[in-house]
Amino acid sequence: MARTKEFDPDAALRAALELFWERGYEATSMADLVERLGIGRASLYATFGGKHELYLKALNLYLRTQDPDPVELLSRPGPVLPAVRALLEKYVEETIQDPLGRGCMVVNAAVERLPHDAKVARLVERGWTSLEVALTSALTRARAQGEIAAERDPQALARFLLVVLQGIRVVGKGRPDPERLRDAVEQAMAVLA
């Protein structure tokens, strides 16, 4: 008869996500994971595979549980540009309010693992593509509603905003100057006008 797990795999995965998010992949050892998750090494391997597989699962969990979900925020009915501003401001506020300086796990993964880790690269690209598609869709709606000029390219603007949003996360890894980040939001919104 198979033994039942003596731990909650979902809770363990969330704990692994927090640890990888705080320290990064390289600075997190299997011993660190065993200690933080409170499970034996054999159970960790049996449930999640090795460290790399656990990291991929943690990154995937991060991508699925972003709050607020940018796609949901940008797809709400009504004017689009206030939703875009809200998203930019949300990134700034999360960055300013991040006492551990963790930043965004997707950005952290990109900086630490790319270009040499193809599996992480696919997850990072999936996250960025999802955000770009949501922004493109929203800005296409904004153009149709007359919020941005008819000759503006929604996809090019979405790509610009994607880079601004990720840049906010990178700048936030240091001691972010709130005015620097807020000025970036104002300039991004001015580009859209």
- Note the main sheet: none
| CATH architecture descriptor text of the largest domain | Orthogonal Bundle
What CATH calls the topology of the largest domain is Tetracycline Repressor, domain 2
H/E element string? Answer: HHHHHHHHHH
Individual helix count: 10
- The span between the termini is 66 Å
> Which parts are unreliable, with pLDDT below 50 for 5 consecutive residues or more?
none
What would CATH call the homologous superfamily of the largest domain?
Tetracycline Repressor, domain 2
What is the CATH class of the largest domain? Mainly Alpha
Averaging pLDDT over every residue, what do you get?
Answer: 92
The count of strands amounts to 0
Q: How would you describe the overall organization of this protein?
A:
The protein is an all-alpha fold. Helix content is 70%, strand content 0%. It is built from ten helices and no strands. The chain is elongated, with a radius of gyration of 19 Å.
Care to give the gist of this entry?
This protein has 193 residues and is mostly helical.
